[in-house]
Write a structure and sequence with these properties.
The complex is a heterodimer of chains A (502) and B (519). Chain A is α+β, with helices and mostly antiparallel strands. Chain A has helices spanning 14-20, 71-83, 189-207, 247-266, 312-320, 326-337, 341-349, 353-361, 366-384, 395-406, 412-423, 429-436, 444-457, 459-466, 473-483, 490-500, and strands at 22-32, 87-88, 95-98, 108-111, 118-127, 130-143, 147-151, 162-166, 173-179, 219-228, 239-244, 274-279, 284-290, 300-301. Chain B has one domain (4-309, 390-512): Amidase signature (AS) enzymes, CATH 3.90.1300.10. An 11-stranded mixed sheet of chain B has the order 1-3-2-4-6-5-10-11-9-7-8, with helices on both faces. Chain B is globular, with a radius of gyration of 22 Å.
């Protein structure tokens, strides 16, 4: 998606903005549940099916069709609410949110309005060793819309030649989790926002209620942001930035809006209350529709559904069966793995906790698992501009590569090439080792000859080693490795050199 | 009578069971009757000749093999065009659904098919069931078989007229504020609005979801009971459907026909009689009450003070729900699609606007505007919210009334059939026709209308309404059958519309008998 016609607005530097203003955020996260069927009908929810193959009279909004609530979705909603320390409504209803849009089959969305299933909760996230409490306003159930595809040069609705709609997504169960205004973060606002979404993702994964794949849209974030002169000032006018669909983008979008709003305010201009769109490619937001009081969804209780009144005993059963909360889990894992606070923080910050855990479970030593994900994979994700979890490499792959290193079959340098191959879709680590011929040379004869040649070519260095300056061996090891094009076990080369020169 | 179309459904079922006739013969007879009179009556929007005959043949085969699927297997039925029928056009009387053929059956239709009733076709109605005269159909009005210049009631005028004109022994209607009962009253037929949740709404194109209910349209109480038992019962596809069995309705109708009303308390609703009711309508009502007294019933007067607000509440709740329900008709997926003229490369919104402008009639637009307004922020509490409170008060009135009476009774409609066009320019006068039927929809209780005679002043049918507590639909049938038997006993012959019936004189001057009888 390109951002045509948008002149880049002036930005204030982040540090200056933070010296001048106090940010207040509100985060709305939409989570697609991984139920087998949709929110109000029996259609399957599988991602990636051919367009309009997972539809029925109900989710297509055909005249006469009626909704029936998916009990599993209600259960998931309650579990999410409980995990966020929310109160669970003893009685609540669905409501219709009325507005016209072609990808919404009924031209109203069946959602919840003033009677959410979960409300008044809280959770805590850690940023740079500080704990921030995030108050949860509500978590409510609703249905997803269809997906429009605008065909034409612009790729957007304006200027499209024609548009296609896929209703497979229409009716997929969504939980919308809304925070209360998040204050007191100061210049940590972008990191707190990112940490909150990462925390939610981890929590939802632990609950097993969603695939939480941001790149597939099963977890989507809208960022509300406003600035005020100081924490004592009244709240400023906010903007709502939509389409923020990766952890990195959450941080970047907050940072961008801070800079944009600060520049406007410093200029004496006002902030327009509006919806803005985040552009992943250019890293900016552009104005969408203006949000004003004129937007009236005419909510009223959905007359085709009966109220939901979850049994109190059932709620307690669900509460008792909740998985370990993320922070407690982190403390336990840190203890088990022997990571330092900094190592643990980096692991969590990179969104790699689950990946590291799975890699360790697949047999890798904790330090190695952390090393690969936080150095190699984090770098690659950064280069590709995607979340680390979106890389085409699995924890099992990483564990296997480490096993190959431990077995002496490859070294770290070759391991990186193995990852290149895995990421390029060349198969499993073993496939890549085989097809690229990456095994270290263990032919002692060839190695020995290479060592001899290196000694002969570097008599001065050889003499130093003979004289006891063992550290000088590095130069000879380098020469041998170069000749062997990296496919040698550096430790073995060192042993050979020292043996020959002792 | 020899003509098969004149016989009741119960009678036809017996004839089929006794091998006296076949479903094909019955179906052909009714199709021929449709051919003969529907040009004048216009009860049908779509006749499914081939489909009905195929179902009739299948029914005859089942019966020949000794496996009929139910009492009414083989008895044909007409279906109001607001119920989705797979493979058969479903227009709701609107241009906006012209040409739409649903890919699925409403649960009521599924049950008709499963019970072996051949579906003759789809009956005319006010557009999206908005109206009391069937004049708001986009496909032209239906005419009352008693007087072709008069309205057959609405919105289900098509179903009532089809049954009154002997084009079908049975029909299904829907009742949001009286759309089964009021047409029944003005065409001299029986119509039942079951308890809300008693008959599945899945596949019923919603007018107002919290008020709509499908029910039987027939010529006798027993026929309604038979049809009600076919279409009623819990449906997991409708969350508002009640998962609880009803007492047997057919048994209640048979028990009632024996004529014993001892111990039954009949409450006359003070607010639904007297002023505003046509003298002939009131007179027939009073006589009917007396007949129930003669049968042993105890009559009490009850007051439902909040009923005076029912019409106002109804005209806020209905348009609110309807404005949202009708939003889906936007040309994006089915039905009419109008591309605006003079607009290059129109966008989706422009197509929606042009389609809705061309596809909806004035009454529909009027109610969409009313509903949109009533739900708007800042007005919601004053209108929709307040109307829901009135609704609660009306339910309480019913609850209190049912403490002193087993059933409540009133005239079904304040007048007999008015002339086509007479009230078209006065929507409020039109709305007032439903004044006696609306409270039942607001409270979800069941109601039945049966013919109580002909008004002295115009010789047109009048209707008698019976209301019962929720889930006590059996009481409607018991009391209704008693009254029906008593009336028939007096008349000596059922009410028959004169206009379309060759060889039958104008209906007997029923009104002249016992004029002094006042409760």
């Amino acid at each position: 998606m390109t951002t045509q016609g948008a002149t880049a607005p002036a930005l204030m530097s982040y540090d200056e903005a933070m010296a001048t203003f106090d940010p207040v955020m509100g985060l709305e996260v939409h989570v697609e549940l991984n139920t087998v069927t949709k929110m109000f009908c029996g259609c399957p929810t599988e991602f990636g099916a051919d367009p309009n193959t997972q539809v029925c009279p109900t989710c297509l909004g055909l005249p006469g069709a009626m909704p029936v609530v998916n009990g599993k979705a209600v259960e998931s909603a309650i579990r999410i609410g409980l995990a966020l320390n929310c109160s669970i409504a003893p009685w609540c209803r669905f409501a219709r949110k009325n507005y016209f849009y072609p990808d919404m089959p009924k031209n109203f969305q069946t959602s919840q309005y003033d009677e959410p299933i979960a409300f008044d909760g809280w959770t805590e996230v850690d940023v740079d060793g500080e704990t921030y409490r995030v108050e949860i306003e509500r978590a409510h159930m609703e249905e997803d819309t269809g997906k429009s595809l605008h065909v034409g040069t612009s790729g957007r609705i304006h200027g499209a030649d024609y548009s296609l709609v896929d209703y497979n997504r229409a009716g997929i169960p969504l939980i919308e989790i809304v925070t209360k205004p998040i204050t007191g973060t100061g210049d940590k606002a972008p990191l707190v926002a990112k940490a909150y979404v990462a925390h939610l993702r981890e929590m939802l994964l632990g609950l097993g209620v969603s695939d939480v794949r941001m790149e597939q849209g099963s977890l989507r974030c809208d960022v509300n942001l406003s600035l005020r002169d100081s924490p004592e000032s009244p709240l400023g006018t906010r903007t709502e930035t939509k389409n923020v669909n990766s952890l990195r983008s959450v941080e970047r979008a907050v940072r961008y809006e801070v800079g944009r709003q600060a520049a406007r305010l410093a200029d004496g201009a006002s902030i327009v209350q509006e919806t803005r769109h985040w552009h992943e490619d250019t890293g900016i937001t552009t104005s969408g529709r203006e949000k004003s009081d004129a937007e009236d969804y005419r909510y009223f209780p959905e007359p085709d559904l009966v109220p939901i009144a979850p049994d109190a005993a059932w709620i307690e059963e669900l509460r008792a069966a909740l998985p370990e909360p993320p922070r407690e889990r982190r403390a336990r894992l840190q203890e088990e793995w022997g990571f330092s606070d900094l190592e643990m923080r980096d692991t969590v910050g990179a969104g790699a906790l689950g990946l590291v855990e799975e890699t360790i479970a697949a047999g890798a030593p904790p330090a190695a698992a952390r090393k690969w994900w936080l150095s190699e994979m984090a770098r690659r994700a950064n280069e590709q501009g995607v979340d680390i979890a979106a890389l085409a490499v699995t924890p099992a792959d990483v564990a296997r590569v480490q096993a190959l290193v431990d077995e002496g079959k490859i070294n770290d340098k070759l391991a990186r090439q193995v990852f290149d191959g895995v990421l390029a879709g060349e198969g499993t680590p073993d496939d890549v080792v085989a097809s690229r011929g990456l095994a270290v040379v263990s032919d002692e004869g060839a190695l020995s000859e290479a060592v001899d040649r290196a000694i002969a070519a570097n008599p001065d260095v050889a003499q130093k080693i003979r004289d006891g300056k063992v550290a000088a061996a590095g130069a000879l090891i380098g020469a041998v490795m170069k000749e062997m094009r990296g496919q040698a076990d550096a430790g073995r080369v060192r042993e050979l050199i020292l043996a020959k020169l002792s | 009578m020899s003509d098969l179309t004149r016989r009741t459904a119960a009678d036809l079922a017996d004839a089929l069971a006794g091998g006296e006739t076949s479903s094909v013969e019955l179906t052909v007879a009714h199709l021929e009757r449709i051919d003969a009179v529907d040009g004048d009556v216009h009860a049908f929007l779509h006749v499914d000749r081939e489909g009905a005959l195929a179902q009739a043949r299948a029914s005859d085969e089942r019966r020949a093999a000794g496996n009929p699927v139910g009492r009414l297997d083989g008895v044909p039925v007409a279906v109001k065009d607001v119920l989705a029928t797979k493979g058969l056009p479903t227009t709701c009387g609107s241009r906006i659904l012209e040409g739409w053929v649903p890919p699925y059956d409403a649960t009521v239709v599924t049950r008709l098919r499963e019970a072996g009733l051949p579906i003759l076709g789809k009956t005319n109605m006010d557009e999206f069931a908005m109206g009391s005269s069937t004049e708001h159909s986009a496909y032209g009005p239906t005419h009352n078989p008693w007087d072709l210049d008069r309205i057959p009631g609405g919105s289900g005028g098509g179903s009532a007229a089809a049954v009154a004109a002997f084009e079908a022994p049975l029909a299904v209607g829907t009742d949001t504020g009286g759309s089964i009962r009021q047409p029944g009253a003005v065409t001299g037929t029986v119509g039942v609005k079951p308890t809300y949740g008693g008959v599945s709404r899945y596949g019923l194109v919603a007018l107002a979801n919290s008020l709509d209910q499908a029910g039987p349209v027939t010529r006798t109480i027993l026929d309604s009971a038979l049809l009600h038992e076919v279409i009623g019962g819990h449906d997991p596809l409708d969350s508002t459907s009640i998962d609880q069995p009803l007492p047997s309705l057919v048994d209640a109708a048979r028990a009632g026909a024996s004529g014993d009303m001892k111990g039954v308390r009949v409450g006359v609703v003070k607010e639904l009689t007297g002023e505003g009711y046509q003298p002939g309508v009131q007179a027939r009502f009073d006589e009917s009450v007396q007949l129930l007294v003669d049968a042993g019933a105890e009559v009490v007067e009850v007051s439902c003070p909040h009923f005076v607000h029912a019409l106002a509440a109804y005209y806020l709740i209905l348009p609110s729900e309807a404005s949202s329900n009708l939003a889906k008709f936007d040309a994006m997926r089915y039905g009419l699609r109008v591309v605006p003229e003079g607009v290059d490369n129109p966008n989706a919104e422009e197509v929606m606007r042009a389609t809705r402008d061309a596809g909806f009639g004035d009454e529909v637009k009027r109610r969409i505007i009313l509903g949109t307004y009533a739900l708007s922020s800042g007005y919601y509490d004053a209108y929709y919210g307040q109307a829901q409170k009135v609704r609660t008060l009306i339910s309480r009135d019913f609850a209190a009334a049912f403490e002193s009476a087993d059933v409540l009774v009133s005239p079904t409609a304040p007048t007999t059939a008015f002339k086509l066009g007479e009230k078209l320019d006065d929507p409020v006068a039109m709305y007032l026709n439903d004044i006696a039927t609306i409270p039942a929809n607001l409270a979800g209780v069941p109601g039945l209308s049966l013919p109580s005679g002909l008004a002295d002043e115009d010789g047109l049918p009048t209707g008698f309404q019976i209301l019962a507590p929720a889930m006590a639909d059996d009481r409607l049938y018991r009391v209704g059958a008693t009254l029906e038997a008593a009336l028939l006993d007096r008349w000596g012959t059922p009410l028959v519309p004169p206009e379309l019936v060759e060889g039958v004189d104008r209906a007997p001057d029923l009104a002249s008998a016992d004029k002094e009888t006042v409760r």
